Amino acid sequence: MKLPLAPQAETALGILQGAGYEAWIVGGCVRDLLLGRTPEDFDLCTAARPEEVKDVFAGHRIVETGLRHGTVTVLVEGMPLEITTYRVESGSADARHPDQLRFTHSLREDAARRDFTVNAMAYAPGRGLQDFYGGQGDLKKGLLRCVGEPDRRFQEDALRILRALRFSATLGFAIEGETLAAARRQKGLLVGLSAERVAGELGKLLVGQGAKGVLLDYPDLLGVVLPELLPMVGLDQRNVHHCYDLLTHTAVAVDHTPPQIALRLAALFHDCGKPACFSLGEDGQGHFYGHARESAALAETALRRLRCPNKLRERVVKLIRYHDSPVEEKFLRRWLNRLGEEDFFALLALQRADSLALAPAYRGRVEALDGIEAQARKLLQETPCLTLRDLAVNGRDLMALGLEGRAIGAALDRLLTAVLAGSLSNERAALLQNLTDFDAKNPDKKEKK
Ligand code: ATP
Ligand code: MG
Questions:
Q1: pTM exceeding the 0.90 threshold for the entire prediction
Q2: How far is the CA of 14 from the centre of ligand 2 (A)?
Q3: How many CB atoms neighbour CB 355 within 10 A?
Q4: Any idea what DSSP says for residue 387?
Q5: Which residues lie across from 90 on neighbouring strands?
Q6: Does residue 46 have its Cβ closer than 6 Å to ligand 1?
Q7: I need a surface site. Which of 53, 131, 352, 441 has the fewest CB within 10 A?
Q8: How far is the centre of ligand 2, averaged over its atoms, from the C-alpha of 41 (Å)?
Q9: Which residue is closest in CA terms to ligand 1's atom 10?
């Protein structure tokens, strides 16, 4: 068997082996190569101790951040490679941190600490594949199976439960029966994990191709870290627009958004406020007045809990806040102005996904949204004016006309409003003319500071 490694990985293996140390590529990159995918990065494992790895790569740039765990990152021909000494982990008191870490000379022992059989294979050119736990067979079957005894492995590190869901979403694999049963027994341990580790796995899960299936199959597991999902399970919306229960509607909407984290998070939480807002109308229809605001508030809390970066959180909350607001063509400029270009198109993408998750008879809004998008793009091409900064005049121009202090800001605001309303074109000459006319009509305005 010959796998197509990146030349830098091959070089690094050659250097280690040339110095007398056993070395392999290992984990996700081997799995991806066997699947015919291009690995995102190449991880190496070796019998060499970290200090020895540093000596062997003395001529290269080295990053020592992972040294405590036996990892040395080496820059080889422009590619960062993580090189980790074979190690054994045993027992964990709190399901978060491996208690003990010791180095070993055995690749088999190193493989035993890895999470799933498909992630526990190693390979080196000329030496072939090392597969101690049936990883290749599980890869063929599309199965995620713990290495060793699943309850114990989840007790050692509960993040592995979320990793199983993550890999299920990204690889489209099923979780093997014993492994899944153990995950369900141990799910309570997810509560103790650090927010950053949880968020890392959830993020990868959500942008995975199979995110919809994972949301639908494992809300009980996800609900431990995302309790917002639990009241959505099976919630009958009792409304003609909807053919799905709330969780299914949500999962279908997620599936219809482009795989970008902000949009996927927005889709995930866009209706999470609905259970709290349900009312039954006299017409026998379910209504959810105020749910956009409620969902935005719940998403804000959830994303803070997950220590999501501020910018991403604000973006997601904003999209959710407006997900239900109809964007009308005549107010396009105002919408663009309010949200900014990027978020505006993201909002259209979210609304499109939301519409595609309605009952079939009500999915027609998608065409209207396509029309609005085309219209907005045209508008931006014609006059890409949006904010004060985009006006064809600036404060200096106004000072040259004799305006001072606050009058400058007020005049700029007035110009922008007129341009956004379409009553004034964003051209320098037209704007300056407007200012002169305005001053002539309001001679006292100029004096105000
Ligand atoms: P990706 O393609 O997303 O990087 P990956 O399999 O490389 O997937 P990483 O998180 O980069 O995943 O981890 C690299 C390898 O380290 C895994 O393949 C696995 O062998 C091992 N590993 C990572 N995290 C754990 C864990 N929590 N428990 C056990 N083994 C782990
Ligand atoms: Mg990796």
A1: no
A2: 21
A3: 19
A4: S
A5: 100
A6: no
A7: 441
A8: 6
A9: 28
